[in-house]
Amino acid sequence: MASQTKKLGRIADVFHDLETVERVRVSDLTQEIASLRAAQDDIFRSLESPSPVNGLFTALLSSRVGRLERRIQQLLREHEIALKRYAEAAARGRSADRLLAEAKGEDARKREQAELEALLEFQEAVGAQGRGKSPRPS
């Protein structure tokens, strides 16, 4: 049973590693979305204060805002998918932890039972030796 517990432990570790990978992916996507939104906000702020230079590049800035928005939308979809995968990985990790805890509990019960059986056998052996002795002279 100990080997099964070790296997379940390794499986639980793998699930936790997968959960970590998904959590990092969600974090990376969140940071990238925030970065793109900040770039988009910078463009909007530059367009709010008209200047001769901005006037020349208004079409380019507008195109850039459109590309940023499309990329943000794409990342939001990826972020949603990554969140679902993260939740699934977390659930698998919890399930693996429960199985591992059950296996460890079963191992502990079997060990305790073996120790009790050994103690009973020892007591029976000591009792048998005691019955086989001749009484002491008084």
Topology of this structure?
Elements: H1 2-48, H2 52-56, H3 58-132
Summary of the model, kept short:
The chain is mainly α and 138 residues long. The chain has 3 helices and no strands.
Overview of the structural elements:
The protein is mainly alpha-helical. It contains 3 helices and no strands. The chain has helices spanning 2-48, 52-56, 58-132. α1 runs antiparallel to α3 (58-132). The model has no long low-confidence stretch (mean pLDDT 86).
Return the structural class.
mainly alpha
Largest sheet: none
Alpha-carbon Rg, integer: 34 Å
Instruction: Write down the secondary-structure element order.
Output: HHH
Number of separate strands: 0
Shape: rod-shaped
Query: Distance between termini?
Result: 54 Å
Q: Helix segment count?
A: 3
Low-confidence stretches: none
**Which band does the percent of strand residues land in?**
under 5%
Helix percent band? over 70%
What is the residue-averaged pLDDT? Answer: 86
